[in-house]
Fold each of these.
Amino acid sequence: MTEESSFLANLPDFLYPRSPYHGQFKPEYLIFDANLQEFSQRVNYICNLQTNGKLSPQEAYKQIKILWKQLKRTKKELNIK
């Protein structure tokens, strides 16, 4: 395996890191944890784009608000309190 192919194989782990779930084991908790981690990653990207001038503050806020509503809807659908 070349150095470049090794780098490309590990790129998704670098770009989309995942932390193991340590809470009470229930399928709905695992699903919500995955959604929460994805929310966190996306908010991080949006913040970085806004910081670097690629997104306006208003557009960044709008996108984060949409992601937040999706996360809340997922929590409600999974009946997590």
Amino acid sequence: MTFLAHHLLLWSACLLLVDALLWHLAPFAQRLPRVALRLALFLGYSALIINAGVSPLQAQGWPDNNVLQLGATALAIIWWLYAARVLTELIGLVLIRRIGHSGRLLQDVIGALVFLVAIVAAAGYVLELPVKGLLATSGAMAIIVGLALQSTLSDVFSGIVLNTTKPYQVDDWIMIDGVEGKVLDIDWRATHLLTSVGTTAVIPNSVAAKAKLVNLSRPSNRHGVSISIKVPNHIRPRRVLDALERALQGSNSLLLDPPPKVLLKEAGESLSEYVASGFIAELGQKGQVRNQLFDLAHRHLEAAGISRQPEGFAEPSSRARVLLDEVKVFRSLDGHERDLMAQAMTPRQYAAGEVILELDEVPEALLVIATGVVSATVTEGNRQVEAGRMGPSEVMGEQSILADTPSQARFTALTSCIVYRLDKTLTRDCMAQRKEVNSALNKLQAVRQQSSRSVLLGKPIDTRKSGFLGWLQKRG
């Protein structure tokens, strides 16, 4: 205790070193314990220097000992800076708790003001400098510096406005002047975005405050998605609109409210542009849903007889033959085999709401959707749960073809549909001759069984953009 009493100033300096080490090295996961520790160390530091005779409110009284006088003056000045630092941390803790991450910018601005006051106070109380003259000089210097840093100050105050009004926050997806990305940070100078291609875009706050800004994350459960399709002018618009409306109905990722819609955007000299749009619940699915809509639009336009074939393309002889070219299960067949199979296919039309294949039914043919949208539902207790939607070129009844087992789902026409029937015997002969067809049907059955289990368990399933047959795209 005697050693401690005679070396209070030395212990004060050691306490400062302990504070610096603990602040950077202490494994505190939460901000509150770190700030509480710093406050406790500051109070201990204050008690040590005051007991040693050092007062932060006046000049030090050891004129005969220059070393002691210099050390005491330094510790008194450090007390003001230490107090400013602790006060800044406390203010930051309150701001973070009240307004979240955006409180960091206000903490930096307020911290700069607090440190400025602490420096002036230390100059006036500890060094006994003429504060009025210092303030006048600093005022003139502030004007000069302000003019030199006009753009930087504009960024700072624009950042304060952005953090106060909160047009966007960290983790929001936004678009500023055509630059789209996820907000990583909002500091005193700029907003940092992570773009969709993995690069970082730095937007000055002054630019963000003045620019046209689109927040793609708000509202949080409704995000627009659209595709644009160009079709030759000679095709009647009503046919195109009907086909694209069926394409929208074919996606169960789109919200029903507000309902999806299709419109003719522009009629050019040779091509007309159509836009199909809707809303989804999760922004992260936007790219996947757009890809799905493009695929559905292609299939439904093809099913409606609307297509742009390349020059020299030989049009098949029948709609059944055209359909077989799109069915991924029969991709391994050559042209002659598809011609023979198309001749054996018979069409049947179904009205909206009509059941195409009932639950537990054993069909006598493989069913191939030519036009329209079909909903597949599975039973959960006493209710039916939609497992997916299907469109042109997708097949039903593969369980019956493989092992004469009944259908595990009910397939209902959501729109008017045309479904081709391919005799079971002919399909099995094709499977015997082409192992690829047999393998494709077995994989299709496994995918659908997994989809049914995932729906009943309430777990999301990673479905490809082409529906149940999406996995087959990699085979091309």
Amino acid sequence: MPDQLVEHHGTPVLVCDPAGPPLASEQDALDHLVAAAFHGAEVVAVPVERFDARFFDLSTGVAGAILQKLVNYRLHLVVVGDITHHLRASTALPDLVRESNRGRHVWFVADLDELAARLA
């Protein structure tokens, strides 16, 4: 499935292809996600499979760099999928997920239905 621009409750969402290029750095976010803003997306929904494992190891700084870049471009990032094994391996990641899900810029959701419900 190629990336698709869809609308949920009036919000344009770029739903990224799970088989697309991996996101392992800030430059990857620029190359593959920021273009979403130029296509009218406000939210970028990225399947968990697209993220390099270092994204979920907060000590690497990869997540911070990617999240900051997307916020700078006024894009909302939604990480879609099961991250249970990453949560179990980290003491800091559960805090990031909990705080992010309370905010408006970055969410971690189980599936696209949960994303649609949050946008309602």
Amino acid sequence: MTVLRPARTPVRGGPRRLGERLDALDSDVRRGVVSLLVLVALLPLLLLLARRTVRLPHGFDLPVCYGLTVLAGTIGLLHIAYSRYDDPAERPLRRRPRDLSAFPALPATPRVSFLLAVRNEREHIEACVRSMAAVDYPDLQLVVVDDASDDGTAEVLRRLAAELPLTLVRLDRNVGKKRALVRACELADGDLLLFTDSDCVIAPDAVRACVTAMVRHPELGALSGHCRALNTDTGLLSRVQDVWYEGQFRITKAAEAAFGSVSCVSGPLAAFRREAIWNYLPAWAEDRFLGAPFRFATDRQLTGYVLGQKWQGRDLKRRHAESPFVRDHDYPELRWEVGYTRTARVWTRVPSRPGSFLRQQVRWKKSFIRNLFFTGRFMWRRGPAAAALYYGHVLWVVAAPVLAVRHLVWAPLHLAGLLTLLYLGGVVLKGCVWGLAYRLDHPTDRAWRCRPLMSLLSCCVLAWLLPYALLTLRRNVWSRSPA
């Protein structure tokens, strides 16, 4: 069983002590001080952006404009994440809907159904299930669905079911992760539905943090926890992903959460109000794309149903009107907020070998493509800031392979090596900025130096996976290859 190492103690006088001093201030004063400190920290990047903009050549130059856009986007993302994000498990959110009465209040101690679908995870499933059973929350229902595992996982689960208070469901035929989780939902009786992945380990206080956030903020229809890598001792690739995960949650999700529109409540720890997803579970399980069943997009698509049900919900329910999930109880379509809590911690096993890592990234690209055709249809309705973050990210992902071809293929072939070097230099600069943000949050951890490596990996390798994912979109296989 995996043993988690406690986090290192911050140095005296570091960010933790500063954070404690800020917390002692009046909320409005604290927010003003934090905004000022963030602006001061971003001043070098702002000056660089101003200088490059003034020196912008006449006419439209795609590489220069793209570089300035990325720099401006990075500055904006960092500013929002550090100055506007509030952890809903720790304090009330500053941005809330005007009419909170539209959202039904939760009980002070709501019942929580903690759900897991697993297939062929014999080596790691015991650590996951035991961490689920060990969470510090009184009213907890555990449901585990074995999706026709054939590697000995079933035997491990039967042994755990005899020891721990969990409901175990064994499927004779592999149906895929989404359908297996919907089978678990059929047995769930909680006010909140929490999902995790079979290669994860949950912090003991993670469920309580999610509950605190959602009871305090009834407008939250979904909530993402904070994920890091569990197996950082397996090599450089794992450490690089760990630092990248920290930034994706601490910065990207925090910025989206500031506007109540986190676009992906990630699978390692995903919390949902029952009312927010119950009627849409059949649409999720039977999702089709390009005329065929689509077995990916488990995280993004379910989040999309929460974000967009105000505009898409009635049509989705009409398509599945005969399902018990719709027929037995029709919940109103509300404009739910989707948030993120840094307090709810979870660790996941990341791929430690290049082949497994690339396969994972291809699955994620396929999920991105499919979800773009759903969430992209309504995200503009959720306000200009949320729309800018979402469509800005889409633009960056779509432009990445184009820029990679131009700078890594076209430029060398046309003896424009300086253009290639400038491109790679900009990529490294961006990675260093994200790395310094990591160092700010973790002053004693030198792993921040791995972040520029992830930026180089993204532009030189991962950018090429989007076209490949598009060409192989119909290959639908749910399997977790060995790390």
